[in-house]
Amino acid sequence: MTVDQLASPGSLEKLRLFVRILDRWRKVTNLISEDDFRKVWERHILDSIYLLNLFPAKRRWLDIGSGAGFPGIVLGIMLAEDNFAQVHCVESDGRKCTFLRSAVQQLQIPVKIHNRRAEGFSFEGAETVEVVTARALSSIGNIIRLSEEFMRAGAILVLPRGKTSTREVEALDISRYTSTVHVNPLAVDGIFLQIQLRAGRRQ
Questions:
Q1: Domains, the chain, ranges and CATH?
Q2: Which of 76, 163, 167, 191 suits 141 as a labelling partner, its CA being 20 to 30 A distant?
Q3: Contacts from 26-33 at CB under 8 Å and sequence distance 24+?
């Protein structure tokens, strides 16, 4: 499974441009390590694309703690040809937000950057969010707390994690949440955790 197989020609062109933008910016701000950048296609871009492939019908995403743009910018690139798509990226670091806004402008993708802390974050139209995601941001319990408003409105929470994270899931209140584990075929020890409020708990 390669990016060429998963992305349209238009998306692939934008992904290549994004990598070039990231390469320029990483030399002036701490966006991504040298080792991670060498593996950016297989470790970050493919991982972000597969996240979307799990939920191909979802068009409204919220990425908490976007950092270098994974998965938020990649999601925006893959959804750029969909008139109903919108990706919201929340990032507290102002320098990273400057990078993200520059990338969005150059790529012309449906992504909105919010330079805010995730705690208490909200925006007009928040109820339209279908999926909330976050990569390497915090513990699962804390991310759930940050996502609670959106989950009450019906959004699902999907987290790229390592297999050991299933222990955190075992501690969830099963009377309140449901959880599903999706295997990540791109990582030997990787999974995607899908968590959502039970229907009777969305008040």
A1: 3-157 (3.40.50.150)
A2: 76
A3: 26/68, 29/95, 29/96, 29/99, 31/67, 31/68, 31/96, 31/99, 32/68
